[in-house]
Amino acid sequence: MAQMAPAEPALGVRRPALSPSRASDFKQCPLLYRFRAVDRLPELPTKAQLRGTLVHSVLERLFALPQPERLPERAKALLEPAWSELSADRPDWTALFDAEEPADVREWLTGAEKLLDAYFSLEDPRRLDPEACELHVEIELDSGVRLRGYVDRLDVAPTGELRVVDYKTGTAPREIGEAKALFQMKFYAVVLWRLRGAVPRQLKLMYLTDGQSLAYTPDEPELRRFERTLEAIWQAIMRAGRTGDFRPSPSRLCDWCAHQALCPSFGGTPPEYPGWPDPDPGAETPLDRAD
Ligand code: SF4
Questions:
Q1: What does pLDDT average to in each consecutive run of 10 residues of the chain (291 residues)?
Q2: Where does the PD-(D/E)XK endonuclease-like domain start and stop, copy by copy (predicted)?
Q3: Number of domains composing the chain
């Protein structure tokens, strides 16, 4: 079968871009990238992923409230309405819960309350005035590689210094998730540096499963090198996209892969390569952002 080569889309069409989640998928395992971005195989989230998405949505709503109202009880009261909206948008997600057992959802919401408690143990949102939450950022590098993503929160100090904040709610062990999280944060740092001409002062990861945070200060030479890494990843994706050669790269992270049944490393057979998706390889989803 003739494969469709990655090509420039028509004017007005959303252009192919690299997102931190898809870049990190390709780095982890090219076949995982293919399953998600090219085949776009459906993945039902786990309850933990969905809880992360819900908590991200609640924190966004919390920051939309006047500062004095950003209290723990107010945040918890936002959980149910946020879940109603999410589940109205994606009714398939309700399949994760036992419809005959209301306690199932209640227990899950209690888990989300614990994540919010951890959040409030890390900072007091009444004292913060973020410039944006769930900020869409996009830039085309000089090389023509386009980067696109969503920043959980962007704080700007009166001096103009930027702080990029990311909430982590995933269940993967810290030592596995940390490299991935820093990759994602450096991705945003490159985009913001190129968009605003200033290197973000701080990248802050807030781990809501264990109430810890990690702050990282990037510098320009590092971001320059990282930009080249992103360009190399995109070139490698384009090469694989032309040939369909997306190889599996097994690791401990396979435990979190929803596609083991189709993976040759686990005795499976991938579907026939459908060709490069036109115009846009898999975008990030709210579930990616909550990971
Ligand atoms: S199971 Fe592992 S090797 Fe196979 S596609 Fe998933 S991440 Fe890649």
A1: 43 71 94 94 90 96 98 98 94 88 91 97 97 95 93 95 93 73 93 96 93 92 97 94 95 93 98 82 59 59
A2: 18-264
A3: 2
